Amino acid sequence: MTGQIGETDPRITLGVLAQLVEPLARALRAEVVVHDLTHLPDSVYAIAGGLTGRGVGAPATDLLLRHMSEGASGNLLDYPTELPHNRRGRSSTIIVRSPDGTPVAALCLNIDVTDLVEAHRLLGTLLGGAEPIASPRETFPRSVGELTERMIAEAVADTGVPVDLMKKQHKIQVVARLREQGVFAVKDAIETVAEAIGVTRFTIYNYLNELEGEESA
Known about the structure:
This protein is an alpha+beta fold. The protein has 2 domains: 10-122, PAS domain (Beta-Lactamase, 2-Layer Sandwich); 144-215, no CATH class. The chain has helices at 10-28, 62-69, 114-127, 144-159, 168-180, 189-197, 201-216; strands spanning 3-4, 31-36, 44-48, 76-83, 87-97, 103-112. Strands 1, 2, 3, 4, 5 and 6 form a 6-stranded mixed sheet that branches. This is Putative transcriptional regulator YheO.
């Protein structure tokens, strides 16, 4: 069940959550982050703990953007993440909503579990039969540009076709995924995507119009 704050002004919600960041970071020995979900993608509103090297004004993660684009129906708890310097993490994202159900903030907890993962691996080697550790599925970009480039690279990779061999349907597939993830709300994203898949920005506009036309039909 997602959190809910009784006040209607998102700034009050964010102010309350921001007061929790530093004490929670110390108590849990974790990085604690508050995201302003009304200010995506550069949504980091308050942060303490220093695991990811980010600061106020840094962008949301690719996972959080995808979750928002899919309606943010619930919390994301205890999932694997990739920290800087090849370290491993476990994270949780709690969506905080206004009384009308609108997501206004996200409270995120990031914990470095690199040493625990290594201990698990060694014990598994000794004892046998240990379950594998899940691969990371969230990273922490420090700028909107880095976030955009990472999401484009993932969308291209998912087609299974190199850019220089892509046909129109593959490129539309890339654009459709990035559109669903909200990438085109980022400044200059049209130009960045166009360069990445070898088309003009006008072609990207045409692809977006085709996708909107298909949805309308």
